Amino acid sequence: MVNDIDLRHLRRCVELAAEALAEGDEPFGSVLVAGDGAVLAEDHNRVAGGDRTRHPEFALARWAAANLTPEQRAAATVYTSGEHCPMCAAAHGWVGLGRIVYASSSRQLAAWLAELGVPAPPVRTLPIGEVVPGAVTDGPVPELAERVRELHRRFHRAG
Ligand SMILES: [Zn+2]
């Protein structure tokens, strides 16, 4: 279940995705929140420079590995505008982070990109649970997913 606190963090993720878009990058944004509710770190996609691994969920997983104890990681929640790709889900699982809450799902993204005529990505789109069987996830959130969809539409129409 997604509560009001979750929605507040997810709205920030969508803002970060919009910031990425404004900087010419793909619209994805994520926030890492501690078990006590404190926002620890946030990031957005930075792949426009040519390094296609610079996803925010991957950056937050590596930040967590460098800065948090295993217990703190397990208690933390990752909020994200779009469900983790397999690379980011794997990083999440290896680092031992806790719950994931996403505004839009990988399945939605794949459908939107197909509608826009965007070629399939080189990495298969999979639900987080297929990569990290023990992951606790919530999402998508319909009203926010619609906003994320609009950001992707703008990114690919502009490109
Ligand atoms: Zn990713």
TrEMBL record:
InterPro entries, per database record: CMP_dCMP_dom, Cytidine_deaminase-like
Signal peptide: none
One Gene Ontology MF term: catalytic activity
Coiled-coil blocks: none
Entry protein name: tRNA(Arg) A34 adenosine deaminase TadA
Organism whose genome encodes this protein: Sphaerisporangium siamense
Record-annotated CMP/dCMP-type deaminase domain positions: 4-120
TM stretches of this protein: none
Domain of life of the native organism: Bacteria
CDD domains, alphabetized: nucleoside_deaminase
